[in-house]
Design a protein that fits this description.
- The structure is a single chain.
- By secondary structure, the chain is mostly helical.
- The protein contains four helices and two strands.
- Strands 1-2 form a two-stranded antiparallel sheet.
- Helix 2 packs antiparallel against helix 4.
- The longest helix is centred in the C-terminal third of the chain and has 42 residues.
């Protein structure tokens, strides 16, 4: 296929000419956006995995602690910690949505607009 022919996806760029998407990916704004996103994702993932590891290690090495009943009910420390895993998952999702809205979405919208102008 020559550089002037069309493919089902649209015009085929000449070799050596970067597409608008390639230009955007090599921009400093995109790299900064990706760095902010990765920093947040790895930090939150690490914190959640550490919290989960504490839960698992307590269950394995401190059964007396996790089997402790709370307030004379059938609720134990282990059950409460297990339920808090769900709560922390929801909290992380909410925190990410807020973080993305404030720190990621404005830059992503600018980059998207720039690419769409060049299409």
């Amino acid at each position: 296929m020559s550089a002037t022919e069309e493919s089902p996806r649209g015009p085929v760029p000449q070799s050596g000419t970067p597409t608008p998407y390639e230009q955007m990916r090599s921009s400093p704004e995109f790299r900064a956006l990706r760095t902010r996103w990765l920093r947040y994702v790895f930090t939150m993932s690490g914190l959640f995995l550490a919290w989960f590891l504490v839960y698992v290690l307590l269950a394995d090495f401190a059964p007396g602690v996790v089997n402790t009943h709370l307030g004379g009910t059938n609720l134990t420390v282990g059950l409460l910690l297990g339920l808090l895993q769900f709560v922390s998952t929801f909290a992380i999702a909410v925190a990410y949505a807020r973080y993305a809205e404030k720190n990621l979405d404005p830059t992503a919208a600018e980059l998207r607009a720039r690419v769409e102008e060049n299409l």
